[in-house]
């Protein structure tokens, strides 16, 4: 919980004695839209982790850490989860340093912190000791309430036991979902994005199963992690690649890169479209395999089959660096080897005679190559089938016709 809370403020402290978490949020309230909205986001986070207020989580606000802690400790279950109660109305028995003196305070008629704070300081110090007076001063802000802030780890690694041994993906995805939220909080706190996540599925006897989640762009949203994991587990389960039931999962996120927070897109749409493209690529890789999804390297070459080659770089730095033919009307789907077409009524035929719509476009190149058959001389046409499909065909000097590509 403490690591998760670092996404809201870098000042997070753990109070082990009271099983409490203290967040200094004054400097970040404007970022989150004010105290009420921040408390709402915290409440949603607790619910996502499986904790619900007021049964297991109780939140309170105060001017100092000790004041907020005292308010939270004495709140009844029916109280709203984020009150900003007045400190002097709280009962004195909430003060840990005053527990040995509760009976004496009650005989004196001291029931609230306000009544205790109104007593003369010299008498308080002589009768109850310095610790009680120091607690009051730190709660009211008269002296510093020093806390040790936790630090975010350099690398994220988290384990989680499954509630039962799982031979299906449901329990695995549920357990991973909690870790994904913790990972997202860690990434936000450090302004990082993750490139690769490795999820280790532990079995009883065989070696553990490693599930590798690779992202098309640095990611930090737990929903994005969960969608990709679901796709990958579905593919793994279809191949029966999980040999035994899983009892524990481990998540490693060591491949990270800087990913600062972005401002909201004023014009709208541009970044959302880019994000959607990255997520589509990730899902295709998860379903089809990473080797089946690739980008294109564009070359300054007239011959269509040599104008581009497959590349693992999905987003080239200069995607429009095409040669002289970049303005030509070319299909995006080319056959690896052109298909020889038969002639019907002196016209090329592909499931029937083709109707030539435009052309010819002469491509004559490759004489500079030392490879055999490097030279090319073709006349290209856009043709239409009787089913209204558009094809890219060419004619050789020997008047042979070939199908080379399809238009979408």
Written description of the protein model:
The chain is of the alpha+beta class and 408 residues long. The chain folds into 3 domains: 139 residues, no CATH class; 133 residues, Dna Ligase, domain 1 (2-Layer Sandwich); 78 residues, no CATH class. The protein contains 10 helices and 14 strands. The strands form 4 sheets. It has a 6-stranded antiparallel β-sheet with strand order 10-9-14-13-12-11, with no helix packed on it. It has a 4-stranded antiparallel β-sheet with strand order 3-6-4-5, covered by helices on one side. Strands 1-2 form a two-stranded antiparallel sheet. A hairpin with a 4-residue loop joins β1 and β2.
Keywords:
single chain; 408 residues; alpha+beta; Dna Ligase, domain 1; 28% helix; 27% strand
Percent of residues in helices comes to 25-40%
Number of helices: 10
What oligomeric arrangement do these chains adopt?
single chain
Kindly provide the radius of gyration, computed on alpha-carbon positions and rounded to a whole number of angstroms.
34 Å
Detail the poorly predicted runs.
321-327
Note the run of SSEs as H and E. Answer: HEEHHHHHHEHEEHEHEEEEEEEE
Q: Domain count, please report it.
A: 3
**Biggest sheet character:** 6 strands, antiparallel
Q: What is the end-to-end distance? A: 51 Å
Task: Tell me what portion of residues adopts beta-strand conformation.
Answer: 25-35%
């Amino acid at each position: 919980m403490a690591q998760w809370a670092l996404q809201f403020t870098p000042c997070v402290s753990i109070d082990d004695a009271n099983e409490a978490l203290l967040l200094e949020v004054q400097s970040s309230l404007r970022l989150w839209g004010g105290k009420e909205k921040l408390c709402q986001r915290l409440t949603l986070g607790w619910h996502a982790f499986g904790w619900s207020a007021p049964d297991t989580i109780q939140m309170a606000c105060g001017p100092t850490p000790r004041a907020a802690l005292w308010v939270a400790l004495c709140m009844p279950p029916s109280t709203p989860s984020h009150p900003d109660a007045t400190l002097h109305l709280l009962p004195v028995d909430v003060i840990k340093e005053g527990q040995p003196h509760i009976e004496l305070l009650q005989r004196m008629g001291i029931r609230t912190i306000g009544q205790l704070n109104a007593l003369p300081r010299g008498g308080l110090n002589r009768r109850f000791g310095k610790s009680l007076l120091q607690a009051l001063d730190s709660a009211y802000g008269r002296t510093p309430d020093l806390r040790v802030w936790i630090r975010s780890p350099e690398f994220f690694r988290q384990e989680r036991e499954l509630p039962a041994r799982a031979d299906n993906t449901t329990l695995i995805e549920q357990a991973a979902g909690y870790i994904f939220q913790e990972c997202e909080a860690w990434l936000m706190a450090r302004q990082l994005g993750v490139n690769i996540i490795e999820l280790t599925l532990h079995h009883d006897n065989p070696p553990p199963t490693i599930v590798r989640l690779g992202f098309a762009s640095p990611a930090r949203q737990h929903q994005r992690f969960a969608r990709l994991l679901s796709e990958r587990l579905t593919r793994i389960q279809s191949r029966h690649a999980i040999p035994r039931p899983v009892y524990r999962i481990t998540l490693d996120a060591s491949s990270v890169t800087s990913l600062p927070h972005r401002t909201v897109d004023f014009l709208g749409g541009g970044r959302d479209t880019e994000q959607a493209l990255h997520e589509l690529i990730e899902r295709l890789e998860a379903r089809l395999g990473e080797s089946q999804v690739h980008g294109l390297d564009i070359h300054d070459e007239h011959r269509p089959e040599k104008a581009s080659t497959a590349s693992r770089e999905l987003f080239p730095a200069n995607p429009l660096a095409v040669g002289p033919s970049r303005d030509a009307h070319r299909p995006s789907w080319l056959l690896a080897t052109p298909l020889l077409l038969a002639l019907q009524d002196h016209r090329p035929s592909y499931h029937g005679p083709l109707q030539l719509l435009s052309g010819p476009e002469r491509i004559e190149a490759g004489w500079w190559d030392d490879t055999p058959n490097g030279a090319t001389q073709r006349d290209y046409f856009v043709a239409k089938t009787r089913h209204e499909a558009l094809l890219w065909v060419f004619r050789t000097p020997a008047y042979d016709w070939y199908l080379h590509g399809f238009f979408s």
